[in-house]
Design goal:
It comes from Streptomyces thioluteus. With 315 residues, the chain is α/β, with parallel strands linked by helices. It contains nine helices and 14 strands. The strands form three sheets. The protein has a six-stranded parallel sheet, sandwiched between helices. It has a four-stranded mixed sheet with strand order 3-2-6-7. It has a four-stranded antiparallel sheet with strand order 11-12-13-14, sandwiched between helices. α6 packs across α7 and α8 (250-260) packs antiparallel against α9 (265-280). 33% of the residues lie in helices and 23% in strands.
Length: 315
């Protein structure tokens, strides 16, 4: 079982438009509402692959109730913690060329009591979990050290820890030696305090995070591929995508594929790449099912192209 923790979940509403023009009235060709938040997306992808998953998250207002219903409809067990503030609603506008404009709400501010209840819910549900995935930004009311405290509790219950966050929350949690951290290129650069121009730069930065506590690093480099650095070495992989429809949740789908495939080694990296490539071909934040995956298009190698320039954050 894979347990996910999303301290600041959302409802994600996506509009597909012919083009985004500032100040204009736009008519959407299609729209949808999906459960959102990094850990929520990981659970959705894990459930789509046929594995059991439990999502621990704060829920507030009518938005929280809808989020819980949508997740249950996708086969995700929800361990909700009631909070006073309403669950946030994020809006994304997708254009035909794959350009995505997002407006993310701040979300509710959690009280000290609500934060404690959320931490207790993780402790109660961690027993029997193979992985606990701690994902996303921390809401107002939670200190950067909160993920570290969560990781300590989950590890005491016998679970492995996957961490997908950034900034001070990532730095603080490294002290608890998470089994895998999953930054994108921008988050990786911020964590080491310098720009990353090449794949080699990213590999060196991943090595630094391992030296600071991460047992392994799964780094998403957007269109340039993904890196996995662990005790056995450094692996690099790519999965070409002809047409990008939406990159919302693609990194979360990658983490789900990685964990569902065991969470270590080149085979898990290949699964991460296949899930991420499948996700960007789907609308909104729809998570891929096994039928969407194309492992034959994935390439994984130990021959890391260290001099290859990074082209940016595009999917």
């Amino acid at each position: 079982m894979i347990l996910t923790v999303t301290p600041n979940p959302s409802l994600d509403r996506t509009y597909e438009v012919p083009g985004l023009r500032r100040g204009a009235v736009l008519r959407a060709a299609a729209d949808r509402v999906d459960p959102g938040g990094k850990g929520v997306n990981v659970s959705r992808a894990v459930a789509a692959a046929g594995h059991r998953t439990v999502a621990v998250l704060p829920l507030g207002g009518a938005e929280g109730a809808l989020l819980e219903r949508l997740l249950a409809g996708q086969g995700v067990e929800v361990a909700g913690v009631p909070v006073t503030g309403a669950t946030r609603v994020n809006v994304a506008v997708a254009e035909p060329d794959g350009t995505l404009t997002k407006v993310n709400a701040a979300g509710p501010e959690l009280t000290a009591g609500e934060a404690a209840l959320l931490l207790s819910a993780v402790g109660e549900r961690s027993a029997g979990a193979g992985w606990v995935a701690c994902c996303g930004s921390l809401p107002r009311g939670l200190a950067p050290e909160w993920y570290g405290r969560l990781a300590a509790r989950a590890r005491a219950a016998g679970a492995r820890i996957a961490l997908d966050t950034s900034g001070p929350a990532l730095t603080a949690a490294l002290r608890e030696r998470p089994d895998v951290v999953k930054p994108n290129a921008e988050e990786l650069a911020r964590a080491v305090g310098r720009p990353l121009a090449t794949v080699g730069d990213a590999a060196a930065a991943a090595g630094e995070l391992r030296a600071r506590g991460a047992r392994s690093v799964l780094a998403s480099l957007g269109a340039d591929g993904q890196l996995l650095a662990d005790a056995s070495g450094t692996y690099f992989g790519t999965a070409p995508v002809a047409c990008v429809r939406s990159d919302v949740g693609a990194g979360d789908a990658s983490l789900a594929g990685f964990l569902a495939a065991g969470g270590s080694g080149p085979e898990a990296l290949a699964a991460a790449l296949a899930h991420g490539a499948a996700a960007v071909r789907l609308p909104g934040s729809v998570m891929p099912s096994p039928a969407d995956l194309d492992l034959s298009a994935v390439t994984v190698t130990t021959d890391v192209p260290r001099d290859r320039a990074l082209t940016g954050p595009a999917p």
